[in-house]
Amino acid sequence: MTASLLAFLFAITLLTMTPGFDTALILRTSAASGWRKALVTSMGVNAGCLAWGIAVGVGLGALLLASEVAYNALRLVGAAYLLWLGVGLLLKPRSAFQTEAPEAKKQSSYRSVFMRGFLGNLLNPKVGIFYVSFLPQFIPAGSSVALWSIGMAFAHVVVGTLWNGMLIASTQYFAEKLRKPAVMKIMDRLTGCVFIGFAAKLALAKR
Length: 207
Known about the structure:
This protein has 207 residues and is mostly helical. Helix content is 81%, strand content 0%. It has one domain.
């Protein structure tokens, strides 16, 4: 059991550190909107991972592995969502860093960045397929699949939180330069292109 857990932690740490959509989203949010909203975005990403872990634990994730229709439907919805995010950044890049706003607007904004991270993971069937195919390799024989799947997803969340915290902290060193209007516009448009690239990759992906 200990060997399985250590092997999983080693593998998931390497995979967490591999740059992807989540990394781009968190870095962009940290630089453009500050560390608090970046942390909330990270929480959304982690909530998406935990949701997939629970789904795999109760058997729902296996549906994506077995059903071509379910996989393709979620893949296309996820690609459309990433495309929407990317086009939005290209057409309406930010030019200012807002530190003050009405309380209602603050709540909406924090909710918005949380959902952006959450949906980015939840609507990506690759995450579900990854969990279905990856987690069982580390579950000891005779152990509860549901408990181990959820437990490993939670461990993934802990590792992700630590790594994302390091990413967020690293951007704060360059925060002032990154928040200049011209730099923010360029950064948003570059991030938009990255998101569109991820959307195309997901749309064309095969299991």
